[in-house]
Amino acid sequence: MSNRPAAGESSASVGERVTAARDQQLAREGKINAHLNNREIRKWCDIAKDDEERLETILNQLGLSVRAWQRILRVACIIADLTGAESIGRMHLQEAMGYRTIDLIG
Fold it and tell me: In this structure, are residues 63 and 71 in contact, taking their beta carbons and an 8 Å threshold?
């Protein structure tokens, strides 16, 4: 094992991205994504039609609720915000679904 630290993003850089994402959320709806209501989720957490169909299929296979759908969309929106994306892409949605799967296992 090496004594060198692993290469990666610095804490300062992560902090800057988190601050920028939070600012983006506040500018968008006056609150952070965690506090979005159902109407606001539909408005701001829009995904492509094929991604929506894929998410619906996965949720049905796992027996998850509409509430789980909303939570996944919120997390995907946060991930998109952290990457500076204008909208939720498939990779953001897949990452959010991965976190939800981990919740189900653990």
Answer: no
Please, how many CA atoms are within 13 Å of residue 62, restricted to the half-sphere of its CB? 19
Distance CA 78, CA 18 (A): 10
pTM: 0.81
* Tokens matching residue 88: 């939720």
- What is d(CA 46, CA 29) in angstroms, rounded to the nearest whole number? 14
From first to last of its 106 residues, the chain has per-residue pLDDT tens of 444 555 688 899 989 999 999 999 999 889 998 899 989 988 888 899 999 999 899 889 888 888 888 999 999 999 999 999 988 999 999 999 888 766 555 5
Q: Tokens for 49, please give them.
A: 């039609």
Q: Which residues contact 91 (CB under 8 A, 6 or more apart)?
A: none
Kindly list the structural domains of the chain, giving each domain's residue range(s) and its CATH number in brackets, ordered by start.
11-105 (1.10.8)
